[in-house]
Structure formats: C-alpha cells, structure tokens
TrEMBL record:
Full protein name: DUF4190 domain-containing protein
Residue segments, region Disordered: 1-68
Residue intervals passing through the bilayer: 90-116, 136-164
Residues annotated as domain DUF4190: 90-151
Keyword terms, alphabetized: Membrane, Transmembrane, Transmembrane helix
Organism: Allocatelliglobosispora scoriae
Extent of Pro residues compositional bias: 1-16, 25-61
Lineage start: Bacteria, Bacillati, Actinomycetota, Actinomycetes, Micromonosporales
Superkingdom: Bacteria
C-alpha cells in the first residue's frame, strides 16, 4: 500500500517527482518557475498582480449606473442627507383610536377616530406632512366601526322594546 503524497506546506516541490528540484532558501529560482511569494520580481518580467484587498468587494450597481455617487473630498463617496417629512401625530391617533374602538368598545368611539382622521388629512395637506394613509385608515375604520355599533344598538333596542309590547299584565307572554 502506497501513501498519497501531499504537497509540502512550505511550497517546496516534491523531490520524488520527475523534474523537481529540492527547495533551498536563498537559491536562485529555476527558469520558467513561478516566483516565490515575497520574492522581488525578476528583471524584464511582467508585473504580477498584488494581493487582493481586504474587506468587502466593491459594491455592485445596475449596469451602466455608477455604484456610488460622485466622489467627495479625499476620494470618499458623497453622502447626501435626505430629510424625511414628519408624520402627522393626529393621523397616528386617528388610526389607533379607530382600531381600539373596534377591539375594546365595539366601535362606538370610532366616530372620534374618524373625526381625528378628517382633521389630520386637512393638516397634512396644509403642512406637507406624511401620514395620509394612516389618517384615511382612521376615517374608514372609524366610520365602519361606528356604523356597526349603531346597527347593533338599533337591533338591541328593537329586541328589547319589541318584547315589551308582547308583555301581558298577567305575566304571560
């Protein structure tokens, strides 16, 4: 049984292979042999690529688009701060009140959420703020919740008052 031969971790060629020469530190390289790592390039040889830079690879952009903006001072990529518009607080309140009215109070306070939503939409148009979708959600959910609660109240009133009309003084139904 023959053991497989593994390459020498120092990079020296295996002397048992044909055409291999033993590695001697400081010995001149053989003609046609690849240069040893860290060795100065031979005169007249083409320049060898350097080691790969450490860190992340360069960012990829869309084809035909630069990956970064124009370079800023000292060659750093330009960073452009884009200010965000504030969200209208009344729009958030409208949505929260409308949803909470459905979950907690059967939709009756949904009219408050709907009114907050209408006021928030007017403020958003005047001030140029964000939150129009939340205000609209507050309006829709608030009016739907209020409508459902009104239908339920009318149903229970008819049920209660309808049973009184069939009540007899003698106690029989």
């Amino acid at each position: 049984m023959t053991l497989p031969s593994y390459p020498d971790p120092t990079g020296a060629p295996d002397p048992s292979l044909p055409g291999a020469t033993p590695f001697e530190p400081g010995a001149p390289p053989q003609p046609g042999a690849p240069p040893q790592p860290g060795a100065p390039p031979q005169p007249g040889a083409p320049p060898q690529p350097g080691p790969a830079p450490l860190g992340y690879p360069p960012p990829m952009g869309y084809p035909g688009q630069p990956a970064w903006g124009p370079p800023g001072p000292q060659g750093y990529p330009a960073y452009v701060y884009v200010p965000t518009r504030p969200t209208n607080g009344m729009a958030i309140a409208a949505m929260v009140v409308s949803i909470a009215s459905l979950l907690v109070c059967y939709g009756l306070p949904g009219v408050v959420g709907a009114m907050l939503g209408h006021t928030a939409r007017r403020q958003i148009k005047e001030r140029g703020e964000d939150g129009d979708g939340m205000a609209l959600a507050g309006i829709i959910v608030g009016w739907i919740g209020f409508g459902i609660s009104m239908i339920a109240i009318i149903f229970f009133c008819v049920l209660i008052f309808g049973s009184w009309s069939s009540y007899d003084e003698s106690g029989d139904f």
